[in-house]
Write a structure and sequence with these properties.
- By secondary structure, the chain is mostly helical.
- The chain has two domains: 3-213, Up-down Bundle (Four Helix Bundle (Hemerythrin (Met), subunit A)); 262-506, Methyl-accepting chemotaxis protein (Helix Hairpins).
- The chain has helices at 3-69, 73-100, 104-132, 136-213, 217-228, 246-336, 341-383, 388-427, 432-506.
- The longest helix has 91 residues, at 246-336.
- The chain is rod-shaped.
Length: 514
């Protein structure tokens, strides 16, 4: 049962007993009031009327006696009038008493009064009449003997009636005292029972409250205030807290809250440390990303230079191819125009000089391409895993540059040989035919090599374009990585701030030292 139910049951019983006591007191008061009302409005009224009736009879007897003793006619008339008035009043009293007297014994006495009163009136009137006739002695005899007997009979009935009313009143008062005593005794017993029940309810309620609370309310309030102030040290109490009591619940709450706060504090410290490490790592990563972006920009600039060089190489190879075609045409025409051999040889010598210059340019382009490819390979090695594809392309470009250099050296050798042969051709015109044939073959080989150089230059242009695209994509990825690093750094800083705030929030709690 709950504390409220116990209090309601206990104090409800006390209240019920109090209501019973009040009801008994009200009943006693009402009963005494009714009895007093009966005495005042019934018994005393009857006694008063009987006494008035008796007094009126005495007054009638005195008036009749005065008439017999008086010689004054006026006085006698006044006395007669007074007698009639008293008789009329007695008639009224008898009528009222007839309505009030209800007990059988009282009715018999009232009937005796009613029976004697007319005869008494008749004897009184007879005595007065005899006195008026001058028969005073007979009148006195009738009044003092016969009328007195009737009057005494009426007085006796009236006295008996008054005594009966007094006895009834005394019995009513006695019964009232008895019932009042019983009521007082009942109220005393109920009062004792109410006091005992109240004491029992108070004791049981105090014991149950003490058991339910586990301590005094002010102690519980102080403990709750300590927890509210952040003091989570174990609750110290003089005795073991009853199971299920408020004190036990507060102790359990304090223990669990201390555990939670300790875990939150440890977690916040771990989060703060981790976020600081993340922030440091992000700073390093951001710096390396910036360095990588700078290297990529330099690589992109180098690739632009390589692209320009390769494009120039391709254009030079095209021109060389055209010149080689012209040389072939000239050599073929030389076979048919032997007459113009000297001039043709000079033209060939001039063309060979130009070709030598072009080959020198091609050789320089190949050398620069080789150097740029080497630089690109170094930058790709610096880029790590992300520059592996670029390193492959750079290797291919370097291979093509080496092949171009080798071809250029071979062409230069051939040109030098051709020049020497042209010089010898001037001296050995006879051998011109065979030499021209050799020149035609060599020029065709030059044309083929120049075509290979042109194809290699085209492949170099394609490879350089792919490398440029790869570098562009790598630069975009690097920029995205830099943005992600910045976002990660901002998130780590926010996490560190939140962890610091969490640590400040739980720092208000004071835990027991482990």
């Amino acid at each position: 049962m709950t504390v409220t139910g116990r209090l309601a049951l206990g104090f409800g019983g006390v209240t019920l007993i109090g209501l019973l006591i009040a009801a008994i007191a009200v009943w006693i008061m009402q009963d005494m009031g009714n009895r007093l009302d009966t005495i005042a409005k019934d018994r005393m009224v009857k006694v008063a009327k009987f006494n008035e009736l008796k007094g009126n009879l005495s007054l009638i007897a005195a008036a009749a006696r005065d008439i017999l003793l008086s010689e004054d006619l006026g006085f006698e008339n006044e006395a007669s009038t007074r007698i009639q008035q008293l008789r009329a009043r007695n008639a009224e009293l008898m009528a009222e008493l007839d309505k009030l007297v209800l007990m059988p014994g009282g009715r018999e006495l009232l009937q005796a009064i009613s029976d004697n009163r007319p005869e008494y009136n008749r004897l009184t009137d007879q005595a007065i009449e005899l006195d008026r006739k001058g028969q005073t002695a007979e009148a006195v005899l009738i009044l003092m003997v016969q009328a007195k007997e009737r009057r005494q009979a009426i007085f006796k009935a009236v006295d008996d009636s008054i005594a009966m009313q007094q006895e009834a009143t005394l019995a009513l008062v006695t019964e009232s005292h008895r019932q009042a005593g019983m009521g007082v005794m009942g109220m005393v017993l109920l009062g004792v029972l109410m006091a005992a029940l109240g004491a029992a309810v108070t004791w049981f309620t105090a014991r149950n409250l003490r058991r339910a609370l586990g301590a005094e309310p002010r102690e519980l309030g102080a403990i709750a205030q300590r927890v509210a102030d952040g003091d989570l040290h174990p609750i110290a109490h003089g005795h073991q807290a009853p199971q299920g009591s408020v004190l036990a619940s507060l102790s359990d709450m304090q223990t669990k809250l201390a555990t939670i706060v300790g875990q939150v504090r440890h977690s916040s410290e771990s989060i703060a440390t981790g976020s600081a490490q993340i922030a440091t790592g992000n700073a390093d990563l951001s710096q390396r990303t910036e360095e990588q972006a700078s290297n990529l920009q330099q690589t992109a600039a180098s690739m632009e230079q390589i692209s320009g060089t390769v494009q120039s190489n391709a254009e030079t190879a095209t021109e060389a191819s055209q010149l080689a075609g012209d040389a072939v045409s000239a050599a073929e025409r030389g076979g048919a125009l032997m007459g113009n051999l000297v001039s043709t040889m000079k033209d060939i010598s001039l063309a060979s000089g130009k070709i030598s210059e072009i080959i020198g340019v091609i050789d320089g382009i190949a050398f620069q391409t080789n150097i740029l490819a080497l630089n690109a390979a170094v930058e790709a090695a610096r880029a790590g895993e992300e520059g592996r594809g670029f390193a492959v392309v750079a290797g291919e470009v370097r291979t093509l540059a080496q092949r171009s250099a080798e071809a250029a050296r071979e062409i230069r050798t051939l040109i030098h040989t051709n020049v020497e042969k042209v010089r010898l051709g001037e001296q050995q015109a006879d051998e011109a035919g065979g030499s021209i044939g050799d020149i035609v073959g060599q020029v065709q080989r030059v044309n083929q090599m120049i075509a290979e150089i042109s194809n290699a230059s085209a492949q170099q242009a394609t490879g350089v374009g792919q490398v440029g695209d790869a570098i562009t994509q790598l630069d975009q990825v690097t920029q995205q990585n830099a943005a992600l690093v910045e976002e990660s750094a901002a998130a780590a800083e926010s996490l560190r701030t939140q962890a610091h705030r969490m640590a400040e929030m739980v720092s208000v709690f004071r835990l027991a030292q482990a």
